[in-house]
Amino acid sequence: LPVAGRESRTMRRTITHRSNPVRIVAMSEPLQPRQRRTHDGRGVVNCTENYVGDHMDNCRSDFFFPIRFVQIVRCSHDGSELKLQDGYSTPARELDVIKSGALACVSCGAIFAIENGVLNLINTIEIDERSATEQLKRNADSYTVQALDTPISIANNEMKMIPTLEALPVTPADVLLELGCGDGRYTLRLADRCDVLAVDFAEGPLRKLQQRLPKNSRRTGLILGDVSTMKVAPNKFDFVLSTLTSNLPTREHRESLYRLAQSALAMNGRFVFSSHLQGIRQRLAGEKKSGYYQ
Q1: Neighbours of 272 (CB within 10 A)
Q2: Which of 131, 145, 184, 261 would give a disulfide with 240, using CB separation of 3.0 to 4.6 Å?
Q3: What stretch of H or E contains 263?
Q4: What Cα–Cα distance (Å) separates residue 259 from each residue in 47, 48, 142, 161, 204?
Q5: Residue 184: how many other CB atoms lie within 10 Å
Q6: How far apart are CA 217 and CA 75, in angstroms?
Q7: What is the distance of C-alpha 144 from the center of its chain?
């Protein structure tokens, strides 16, 4: 959507698609410069080698995947239902959450592992070189020590977050799908207000988020997934949130995100997303209007 006015201004538009009215709230964020690092491309990469075991040291022993979320997640290959396989582990006296186990597609038989409370939906999916490079960079960034917040950085962060959160009037009965959750900037604000299914395609940030969530959290499910291949049960989510738009490398990736959000939302559901604003400061700095955030 085009974004006009001040950086904190919110635009609202209601669209109708396949008889499913969806309210879209587009938030604009000023582009923040970020150090760029490159990695060697390896063509098409099988994700299993990138993730399994890489971040096990950061896993929490008291974080689990809620079983009730299994029924609203679908196979990344054909969109069929997933079935929990026998032999999964649960904490003592809790039968509604999973520590480790596997889900199997009832149609194609693909297996998706749950390792230390995180469901991996891309362990059998191949990704393109550009996405593989971004995954490696994001995983590496999760180990980087971040600079301490300053009053200015805190104020800028709140300026962006407040209107976004105001556009999400969730209730305890609602279910929210967050696409591109990172290490939980928004997830942590929402985790105690509604059920949250938080998705990111890099395991490092997910494990970092896992460490930051409240102890014995049972309302948040973490998924390692790719928005270009991920599928969920249709019309089961009251809200979809994504701050991922400007990070996606191609129009095809962004359209995949929009299709996923449209499919996920229940009747009269709301899709809230943000993109970086090409404002006067960005124009004066000579930043390109098109492209994607790095």
Answers
A1: 26
A2: 261
A3: helix 251-264
A4: 23, 26, 29, 24, 26
A5: 24
A6: 25
A7: 20
Ramachandran angles phi, psi of 150, nearest 5°:
-105, 165
pLDDT category, 42, cuts 50, 70, 90? very low
Among 104, 105, 102, 124, smallest CA distance to 114 is for 102
Residue 253 is inside which H or E element, if any? helix 251-264
Helix (H) / strand (E) element for 58: namely none
Report whether 216 contacts 62 (CB < 8 A). yes
The helix, strand and coil proportions of the chain, stated in percent and rounded to the nearest 5, come to 25, 30, 45
Q: How many residues does the chain have?
A: 294
> What's the confidence (pLDDT) of residue 28?
45
Instruction: Report DSSP letters for 96-160, one per residue.
Output: SEESBEEEEETTT--EEEEETTEEES-TT-EE-HHHHHHHHHHHHHTTSPPPPP-HHHHHHHHHH
DSSP assigned state of 201? S
Describe the crossing of helices 129-141 and 203-212 by its angle, rounded to 10 degrees. Answer: 30
Residue pair 105/78 in contact by the 8 Å Cβ criterion: yes
- Report the range of poorest mean pLDDT among 3-7, 58-62, 96-100, 246-250: 3-7
**Under 8 Å between Cβ of 236 and 264:** yes
Let me know if 240 is exposed, middle or buried by CB neighbors in 10 A (0-12, 13-18, 19+): buried
Q: Residue 103: beta bridge partners?
A: 84, 112
pLDDT digits (tens, 9 = 90+) for 200-213: 999 999 999 999 99
Separation between Cα atoms, residue 141 and residue 203, nearest integer Å: 11
